[in-house]
User: Fold this.
Amino acid sequence: MADVPTLSVTMLGAGQEVGRSCCVLQYRGKTVVCDTGVHPAYSGIASLPFVDELDWSTVDAVLITHFHLDHAAALIYITEKTNFRDGKGKVYMSHPTKALYKFMMQDFLRMSSSGSDALFSPIDMAMCLSFITPVSAHQLITISPGLTFTPYHAGHVLGACMFLIDIAGLRILYTGDYSREEDRHLIKAELPPVRPDVLIVESTYGVQSLEGREDKEARFTSLVHSIIRRGGHVLLPSFALGRAQELLLILDEYWKKHPDLHTVPIYYASSLARKCMAVYQTYIHTMNSNIRSRFAKRDNPFVFKHISSMSQPKGWEKKIAEGPPCVVLASPGFMQVGASRELFELWAPDSRNGLIITGYSVEGTPARDILTEPEDFVTLKGNTIPRKISVDYISFSAHVDYSQNAEFIDLVKAQHIVLVHGEATAMSRLRAALTAKYKDSDDEVKIHTPRNLETLNLTFRSERVAKAIGT
Amino acid sequence: MASSVFYKFRSQREESRITFNGTGISVFDLKREIILANNLGKANDFDLYVYDAATNQEFPDDAQIIQRSSSIVVKRLPSAKPGRGKAAMYIANANNNNNNNNNSAAPEPSARPASSQNGPSSSYYKGVMSKRFDGKEDPAPA
Ligand SMILES: [Zn+2]
Ligand SMILES: [Zn+2]
Assistant:
């Protein structure tokens, strides 16, 4: 057929990398962009996706899966600094995502405004926020005639959604970051009730398997306990929002069960998190049954009994570091600078202390480098100090592992699978594993791993037996 | 007398300017000033491409001179090999000799970036450990 309509999929970011997610879908004259993130290892314009190749005035809709910076932080640049507003494009995200996004961006702005490379101003931020249309899970949204989408819960963090997009009858499922294991507060990702033609799926953990929640929590709490017993301090670098709430729920419950720990403080000093607690409480109804039933019994799980979250005076890091054993959740999660970095440098030379990395660590950040357990470490001031603190990695980052991802991919049954949001090696291993798995299958399944700006052109016959042109 | 060339990234609505002395600036120097002004120096994942704003013609030759008062468009595109972007090459020794690495020689010793008052050195010598984040609190990751 001469004029077979083609779906083109172009990654402006997160093509064979983790960071700056941005996926452009074009079909029958419609353009949808899923996620507009920044790269955590860079700042300013360098952290943006490769936005220069798209005419943003042609975009019909931008859909944001969740509030994490690597999925959402470039949005204000897109709506306020490009020609996006010259067109008819709309922006959608879930209600909780929008509520949390505001606080995330205030914080992002506060931190980047000290540099010369701030991506946007407070006015830009206000303009953008007022432009966002909030949506609910399972709601069918019509963007324009022939273009609709439906959000489904994705687990991962509060408000995270995957999107089932329908462009003139062609269906694309974009997962964003997702988890398939129910944790302490969120439900697991749902399987949309419709079979899509294309699945665009994260591949952060490639072919790795992660341990089950109970084993992981037990290993985590007993490690924390043993560091305390040996007279050490426990450092948990963590981002203010998202997994931190999960860690606090785990620690609070463990402390409750262990009276011997009641004299050991857990510090969590985060004004961002304090501001966002109200959002967490507002959206209790979107969380899992464990949280909802506790709340129904007037036991608000987000009012922690054993965690001191009062604001700390300047220089608190040093005071706490010199004090008796304690547990500190400190940001940033990647330890580039700030409280987590300062505490790390203070505690690194003492072997009684313990560092636990609790999330996925992006390449090129100190949190990633420390996992190799180097003997020495260079401080921010440039001094070399010995690293005697114990280093452990227990991931609570709420992404699917190989078996969960493979199972979900199986259930979705799309003809085309596009792997995104993974480092090149993790992604190619996943691709190889999936290729082997579908080698003898009756359905022809194509697996793609496009690099940034490497456009994938997919064509579909009317009965949707898909065939790939392009790579 | 200071001269200007106006530039914008292809995605941007508004133009910025680079100022310099003389009647023109080489593509090499222009790229360097744009890299410095936007603090792009430590990113190794992209290359910069420069186009005439009126004709969309690329300026493929770093030695070419762009006349003052011109408007140009810049694109940041992935480097051919991941992690091998050339940004650092353009700002190597930027503090010492302006014409290092530059086989073209601009007509005048060139350009301070207009938009970076405290000079380029504040931004691009920092290694991985001293990223921009100064946060007491850092927003979230992957
Ligand atoms: Zn995420
Ligand atoms: Zn992510």
Observations:
- The radius of gyration of chain A is 23 Å.
- Confidence is low (pLDDT under 50) at residues 464-471 of chain A.
- The first strand of chain A starts at residue 6 and ends at 13.
- The first helix of chain A runs from residue 69 to 72.
